[in-house]
Amino acid sequence: MALIFMDGFDHYTQNQISDKWDAVGAGPNLSSAYARFSGQGYQSYGTGYWLKKIIPSNETTLYVGFAWYRDAGGTLNGGNWGILKFMDENAVIQVSLRLDAGLGFTALLGDGTELGSSAADVISNYRWHYIEAKVTISATVGVVEVKIDGTQVLNLTSQDTKYGSDYIRQVYFGGCTPNQYSWFDDFYVDDAQFNGDCRIRTFMPDSISSTNNSFTASAGNKDDCVDESPSNEDTDYITSDTLNHKQGFGITTGTLGTVVGIQLNNHCRLDEAGTRKITPLIRSNSTDYSGTETDAIAANYNFEYEIWETDPDDSNPWTQTKLEAAEFGLEITT
After folding, report:
1. pLDDT of 176
2. 24, 39, 99, 177: least CB-packed within 10 angstroms?
């Protein structure tokens, strides 16, 4: 694997945060006012505003990146206020990262023991920075590395970073110091590498597949029923109750830089008795490529997603031409 999860906070509403994240703190806010570029960003205020993601498998090493903007408020009192925490399956904190009063970062073991600190003033108030962290869990050869805007500011090796299990299974993100606002955007999780400063863009359907076109629109055109960002749930939608039905859509991306990977998101729910599962579907070069079948679809809406780092047709990187020629959707497989 490599890329595990990404989120640009653009394709859902305030009330839909839990459709994408596994646990949510008291009061995260989503708004275009908090975005780094366009779309939406996520505002945190104090220690109670946070998001948590459970990753699919146990990982000894994990890389996390996100854009961060903070104001000058807050009680920067040296407490254990972690903006990023790496946890095991029982939510035991293995390693956390704290912003210190001198605007440097300190890595801490789960019990609060300081593992090491960067120099002061590695970030500035009132501007966006891209923060990346690598953590390896081990009692003897643990690693904590932090990069700010591509520059390494902390590199701890041969550390005891094990406070719970031998691996990471959850990432806690977004908590900050008391009485201090922060904005977050463009978040990724990877198990293989740093990806550098990434922008996560959202593209909605704007055309209908002529090959995979089995679902029914609630009204009007199918692509018009699923092109809202954020999702409008039952206002308009597509539906099917037939096994092996497929539905695909095209997108228009415009000019792109280097594409690290794409994440296909299906926002769906079950509205009948029984069990249904879906499989994300990409059609590239006139061939269908299936992803991994989901768990049973719930009666409430959730985002089912999968990442493709390369075009499955030729295993080469995605480009604007490839993405605009491909189709994206789903198949009912159970």
Report:
1. 67
2. 24
Q: How many residues does the chain have?
A: 334
d(C-alpha 157, C-alpha 145), whole Å: 8
CATH (domain of 143): 2.60.120.200
Per residue in 199-219, pLDDT (tens digit) is 999 999 999 999 999 999 999
- Domain endpoint, select from 165, 190, 215: 190
The answer to whether the beta carbons of residues 183 and 34 sit under 8 Å apart is: yes
Q: What integer pLDDT is reported at residue 75 of this predicted model? A: 47
| Average confidence (pLDDT) over 23-45 | 90
Residue 28's pLDDT is 76
Q: What tens digit of pLDDT does each residue of 66-84 get?
A: 999 987 665 444 445 578 9
Q: What is the DSSP string of 55-86?
A: EEEEESEEEEEEEEEE-S-S---S---EEEEE
Q: What single-letter DSSP state applies at residue 178?
A: T
**Secondary structure element (H or E) that encloses residue 279, with its range:** strand 278-284
Calpha distance 131→145 (Å, rounded): 11
> Domain residues for 59?
3-190
Judged on CB neighbours under 10 Å (0-12, 13-18, 19+), 111 is exposed
DSSP string, 213-274: E--EESSS-HHHHS--SS--GGGS-EE--STT-EEEEE----S------EEEEEEE---SSS
Task: Report angle CA 68, 164, 101 to the nearest 5 degrees.
Answer: 35
| Alpha-carbon distance values, 166 to 19, 58, 206 (Å) | 29, 9, 45
Q: What is the dihedral of CA 257, 265, 22, 138, to 10 degrees?
A: -50
C-alpha to C-alpha distance for 41 and 206, rounded to whole angstroms = 24
Same domain, 296 and 221: yes
